[in-house]
Amino acid sequence: METYYNILTNKSAKIDIQWHLQECDQYFKPRLSSYVDIANYANKLIQHSYRYEIWEGNKLNGLLAVYFNRQARTTFVSNLSVLPSLQGKKAAKQLMAFLIKSAKEKGFSEIRLNVFLENIKAIAFYKHMSFEVSEGHHDINQEMVLKL
After folding, report:
1. In whole angstroms, what separates CA 57 from the centre of its chain?
2. Given this model, what pLDDT does residue 140 score?
């Protein structure tokens, strides 16, 4: 039986995001801390992103942080992460499905993201969510897009 998570928006404080990202750090491929300062990144997400969140009590269990470009009608995914206790339990899928529904309702035409080439599980997940590989390819990451 599938669990359905209550998804909230923009409830987190910087300390919640920083804690969550530190807890998930070792599960990023490569580690998040190897290419960003987690405290600064948490601050950036608080100040500039729109966040879809899964909470259990006072613990941020799942985080999807995006940027909406209304002029270009594009949504950009900056972060999708769930604590290990939710991995494999469709939490990330539900966060992404919530974003897709929300972006469509707001009139956006696509969702874009970049994923590291070594993160094979994430690439497979996004393909399962109907994202396609975009022409924007770099040595270390792959751009993917979902047309709405």
Report:
1. 21
2. 85
